[in-house]
């Protein structure tokens, strides 16, 4: 009897993928082992009962699988991700604009600088505050492009202030910036591509590598050098960095990609 129960448990746990094999095995067991003690009628009745039982299990497992598949599809379809498009006032056509703002961050000369850039909204709200400068705080500045050593359009925006846009893209579960790529890997969707930028390597403040759009916008009236947070192009240096495939002195591109 213990052997029969064990085989029955196997049939239940593998009903989705191997129901037919389990039924054949158990029906064979019933026929071979019980036929010596039960009459043919009793064996046939037991087989019918067992088949009815396993059919119910098989149907339940199928319904469960269909229900779970439907829920997974619903969850994926309703998912969305948010990312910042640095250097632009708008989002790509496949994304919704959450807000358009000003890129800000810590001053390049501050040792206690915050590393990450911020996309500051154009309509700030305030809580409690004390007016005036008191020195016992951290600070947020606007941001500027530092691109005079480059070429083309990007060279012309040197010292201009940097906009940003926060974008929402639907039916995606993840968004990732890929350095040294202007296209996405297989299975990913391009949100935007651009040039990798960061603070100058001699500056006190630490920074993060940021993907600035390949055709960046500027903020109106912000072409005077006031520094603050600054963005320089990033180029490859050979040594521990493998060359090839990388090339000494070439500016690195970047791509921001999303995936379902």
Structure overview:
It contains four helices and ten strands; from the N terminus they run αααββββαββββββ. The chain has helices at residues 2-13, 15-34, 40-78, 152-156, and strands at residues 80-86, 96-105, 118-121, 141-146, 163-170, 174-179, 189-198, 210-213, 229-233, 253-259. The protein has 260 residues and is of the alpha+beta class. Strands 1, 2, 3, 4, 5, 6, 7, 8, 9 and 10 form a ten-stranded mixed β-sheet that branches.
Please render the helix and strand layout as text.
Layout lengths: L1 H12 L1 H20 L5 H39 L1 E7 L9 E10 L12 E4 L19 E6 L5 H5 L6 E8 L3 E6 L9 E10 L11 E4 L15 E5 L19 E7 L1
Parallel strand pairs: 4-9
Antiparallel strand pairs: 1-5, 2-3, 2-4, 2-5, 6-10, 7-8, 7-9, 7-10
Helix pairs in contact: 1-2, 2-3
């Amino acid at each position: 009897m213990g052997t029969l129960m064990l085989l029955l448990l196997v049939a239940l746990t593998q009903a989705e993928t191997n129901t037919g094999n389990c039924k054949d095995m158990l029906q064979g067991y019933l026929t071979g082992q019980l036929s010596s003690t039960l009459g043919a009628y009793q064996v046939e009745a037991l087989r019918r009962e067992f088949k009815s039982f396993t059919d119910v299990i098989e149907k339940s497992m199928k319904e469960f699988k269909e229900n779970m598949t439907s829920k997974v599809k619903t969850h994926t379809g309703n998912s969305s991700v948010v990312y910042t498009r640095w250097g632009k006032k708008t989002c790509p056509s496949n994304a919704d604009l959450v807000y358009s703002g000003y890129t800000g961050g810590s001053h390049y000369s501050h040792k206690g600088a915050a590393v990450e850039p911020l996309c500051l909204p154009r309509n700030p709200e305030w809580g409690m505050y004390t007016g005036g400068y008191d020195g016992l705080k951290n600070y947020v500045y606007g941001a500027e492009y530092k691109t005079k050593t480059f070429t083309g359009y990007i060279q012309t925006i040197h010292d201009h202030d940097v906009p940003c846009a926060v974008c929402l893209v639907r039916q995606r579960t993840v968004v990732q910036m890929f350095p040294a790529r202007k296209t996405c890997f297989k299975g990913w969707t391009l949100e935007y591509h651009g040039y990798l930028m960061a603070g100058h390597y001699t500056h006190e403040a630490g920074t993060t590598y940021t993907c600035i759009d390949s055709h960046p916008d500027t903020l109106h009236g912000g072409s005077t050098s006031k520094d603050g947070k600054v963005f320089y192009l990033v180029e490859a240096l050979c040594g521990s960095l493998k060359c090839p495939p990388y090339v000494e002195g070439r500016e690195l591109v970047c791509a921001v990609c999303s995936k379902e």
